[in-house]
Structure formats: C-alpha cells, structure tokens
Specification:
87 residues, alpha+beta, three-stranded antiparallel beta sheet, 26% strand
Length: 87
C-alpha cells in the first residue's frame, strides 16, 4: 500500500530540478501515458504550441514508456482599460 501512495505522490510532483515558477514564464506540466506513440505525442504538443502559445521546456522519458513534459509560455500583462476607453 505504501508503494501505491508513493507512486501517486510522484505523479503529482515534477522531477527534481524542474522549475515551475518564474516572473517571466508560466508553466504547465503534462504526463503522456505509456501507450502514446511518438507521433501522437508530437501532434498533441504541436497543438498546444500552435493554438495556445506553449513551447517545450523539458521532457523526461521513463522506462515504462510514459513521458513527463513541461511546457512554458511568456506571461503577458493583462491589459487594463484606459480611462479614455471607459468613458
């Protein structure tokens, strides 16, 4: 039972050394299960890049065939309306 809880905890945390906080970047971790082919994984990541502006930051492949991916994109300041635009 302790082994199952340890693997559940590991799946929620990022590998050591993977930074997820920055003033300049926002990050999103993804886990690709073992059954996902390289072509399918590349297609999924391309869709994230094309339509949401994400780029590949890090990838870690595991012996069971699963992959942990960290995507990043630059933070954009929220545009607040100017006083002239409100009137």
């Amino acid at each position: 039972m302790a082994r199952a809880s340890r693997s559940a905890h590991q799946s929620r945390t990022l590998p050591e050394g993977w930074e997820e906080t920055s003033d300049e970047w926002e990050y999103v971790p993804l886990r690709l299960p073992p059954g996902v082919s390289r072509v399918t994984a590349a297609l999924r990541l391309s869709i994230h890049a094309e339509y949401s502006g994400w780029e590949l930051s890090r990838v870690r492949a595991y012996t069971d065939g699963s992959r942990r991916v960290l995507l990043r994109r630059r933070k954009t300041p929220l545009l607040s309306p100017t006083p002239e635009a409100v009137m």
